[in-house]
Amino acid sequence: MNVQLTNMQTRDVEALLHPYTNAAAHRQVGAHVIETGKGVYVYDEHGREYLEGMAGLWCAGLGFGDKELADAVAEQVHKLPYYHLFAGRSHEPAIELAEKIKELAPGMARVIFQSSGSEANDTQVKLAWYYNNALGRPEKKKIISRKKGYHGVTIASASMTGLPYNHIDWDLPLDRFISTGTPHHWREALDGETEQEFSARLAHELEELIEREGPETVAAFIAEPVMGAGGVIVPPAGYFEAIRPVLEKYDVLMISDEVINGFCRTGEWFGADTYNVNPTSMSLAKQLTGGYAPLSAVALCREQAEVIEQHTGKIGTLGHGFTYGGHPVGCAAGVAAIRIYQERKILDHVRKVAPKFQGHLQRLKDHPLVGEARGVGLIGALELSPDKSGKKTFDPAGKLGAKLMGELVARGVILRAMGDSLGFCPPMIITEEEIDALFAPMEECLDATLAFAKAEGLV
Questions:
Q1: What is the pLDDT of residues 130-181, one digit of tens each?
Q2: Phi first, then psi: what are they for 384, rounded to 5°?
Q3: How, if at all, do strands 281-284 and 296-301 pair?
Q4: Alpha-carbon distance 260 to 231, whole Å?
Q5: 115, 101, 204: which is closest to 154 by C-alpha?
Q6: CA 280 to chain centre
Q7: Which CDD domains match (predicted)?
Q8: How far is CA 21 from the centre of its chain?
Q9: Which domains does the chain have, with CATH numbers?
Q10: What would the pLDDT profile of 367-413 be if each residue is shown by its tens digit?
Q11: Can you state the angle between helices 195-213 and 239-249, rounded to 10 degrees?
């Protein structure tokens, strides 16, 4: 393949190893270099404009170039660019942000900070183990996650992630990590099975799994209210209402992974609110700072927090923490982001524009290449399929998703293909006119992808 790379791209391929990228192919085609951003748009090294329909990586809920948020970050850099929370030290941004999180997440009593969603979910595992040791239950350590769930890339969080690329040749998952079914009614339901019946069956399968493993060995169940990187899978009716009694029966912690769902995205402050999850703890990141600084948090219910705190008195310390966990700049960004969400009534705005966004998605479900359109709030997906049944997939998987994503980029729209599902997660400041612009090239791109599929013999 003979491709002339720009100087910027040549420097990139000689310097960087990119996550979630085919490195061999990347050396041939080079990077797509993004230089600036404003509102819902980003601009590449050649000045080309793109509507960023994924808010970067589900992060930039307030878009790009927000002056108030950037100024808050700059002010904190000048005031206190770094400090830690080790050995009882603290700083005002961390205290204020923890208080704000507690106000927004009823039932949560303590907050511990990290730098990424992966670190937050890794911390969840350690705290679940520590908590059960404190209660004298050394065998209660297994973590149940779901196939197609995404919880990160550290060794523990990747073990909970239920996607093949996060396990193949990484020697994962580790022991103590087990999985249960994906709550995707369209793909996984039996013929004639309603959403409520499907939810009841998944809850029964979860109970059977816990009993088979031994309830005395199962510590926690982790779930995204809406599954993100697994394809934006929206839970069926009654799912968490069916799951919760099973967890309570066997004294299993309910971890709500809000890394993508949190901070207005689903039309409530948290996905747990949208779907009645009632968690014992929550993992927060991404829109926590609007993407303007790395930061994540674990919020714990009072009972779990108090058991952990009392156990540190026995041991002498909480032997866990990160150098940059609770970084003052990240915390200042989080405080500012939440203030902006509240003062600009972002939650109300999401609720106002979501019907137009979801309407565009649903109108595309009749395209012959689209098997299912799904979403909630300002998050959604189109899943490409050989037919509408949900029982067939393309072979090879992912080829058409990548083709559709490329067609959209060529027309100035950035979205993300997750296999053959195309994800949508625009900045939450998006206007109705910009939603129209986001979807404007979709039918043309779907038609071009369908023509490609026919030429390749895939349909």
A1: 999 999 999 999 999 999 999 999 999 999 999 999 999 999 999 999 999 9
A2: -80, 140
A3: antiparallel
A4: 12
A5: 115
A6: 19
A7: OAT_like
A8: 18
A9: 32-65+346-455 (3.90.1150.10), 68-343 (3.40.640.10)
A10: 999 999 999 999 999 999 999 999 999 999 999 999 999 999 999 99
A11: 20
